[in-house]
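The methods section describes the discrete structure representation at length, but only in general terms. What matters is that the chain and its backbone geometry are given together, residue for residue. For illustration, here is how one protein appears when written out as sequence plus structure tokens:
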Amino acid sequence: MLRRCVAILVWCSFLIQFTSCYSTSTTVATPEEARVPTEERIIAVTTVSGQAVHFDGPASIARDTIFARVQGRAYHVALTDVERVWIERKSVNVPATIAAVIGVPLLIFTAVALVAIATKESCPFVYSWDGSRYVFDAEPYGGAVTRGLERDDYSELENLREDSGIYRLRVTNEVRETQYTNLFELWVVHHPKGTRVAVDEFGNPYTVNAQRRLTSATDGEGRDLTHWLQATDRRIWEPPPAEPDADARQEIVLTFPKPDGATSARLVANVATGLWGSHMIREMLELRGNEVEAWYAMIDGDVQARDSLFAWNLREELYTLKISVEEPDGWAVRGLLPGGGPFIAEDRVVPLDVHNVQGNELRLRIQPPRGFWALNSFTVDYGPDVVVDVDTVTAVRAVDHRGEDIRGAIAGADDRYYAMPRTGDWADLEFPAPRARPDMDRTVLLHSRGYYQLHLAAQGTPQTEMLDRITEVAGAAAQLAAERYANREIARPQQQR
């Protein structure tokens, strides 16, 4: 499957040469995926030791080794020593679609990530117009796999730029699912110059102007993770699922300085759902076989069933992490950190009560299941929150790939939805940019609401024994992920040696 998808991507790239102009974007792949020959350029790697290496020019792969030049010198690294491969691939500035000879519509105006086709299982892609091209900028409402789980999402559009008084977005369906969008609007947050804004999972804006960096980060085995987690960069801590029958969780303790007298703090976390964790959404739904639609109906119509699902997720911490604070009597859960992504990691604020913490250190503990989380950075802010103003902006133009006006469907949280049932569906949205305010900076957020349903191969009777095990036994879902990861099939072409 992976090899076929890569072939399609390369075929599209060839056809685009005759129809459109190029720009570039950067995405990520695992070492196994980077083995597959494509037209993309390998421009950097992150090693398992946490070293981020940027190449002078495109690298090549031979004999399970990446060869490149770094600062004018020859460089090579074995794929077994690489955690992530950073790939530059071509994207197209103007909307255009073609029908593939295999009989399905293909989206050719975006940078379709190799790994996205292979493993991504959730949510639409949102692209921002940066003044010259569309840039991948958001993945809203991940994990909302049926209408009963529909939720609001808040994504900072870091690449969005005003163009002749207009903000432009493109939303696409690039995976095997039907996506239902209930609301798309922009929140333009005005805040004093020199300040920065981030939001919590409910969209509440906070100014974070005096962030304190980690002084240490260690796991339960004593490994120092500080250089992995102290800055938002290409060092992303994403250990694969544990070996079957091994401990599926990893304990990480984060230590920050704490000012005297501080009683509250704002944790700013840049994290995402792991690639394999995203894939496991499909795996676990397909366990339900031909009864998956009945399960959807139960979640959609029964509040108690939804509450049980949320309680299970909180117990397992697959897609929500508990943040524990060390206090004199031990560890106390003081906050919850939602997942996102897996390709766009958003900064999320988690307000914490730290009035019981003694001394000049704040110690936090997380226990992420391996394979389900990609952790980039953690900081803490103790400063006073600054009042901000928010303009809510609705679309003045919203047209789908068929030329239909969809503004009514996305204007408010109601019973109307913009549905994208096919891979390759897309829509363009335009929003008026509010007038700039003197001595104020602005941060633009996409407030969206929706859900999606995966296109499943849900056949046969449910795997009741496995479903009961996942539901009743703590840690069983992470163990299943480890078993499926160990048995996975990677499409790997024969290499010339």
Remarks:
- Residues 2-16 form the longest helix (15 residues).
- The longest strand covers residues 177-192.
- The chain has ten helices and 29 strands.
- Residues 65 and 262 are 50 Å apart (CA to CA).
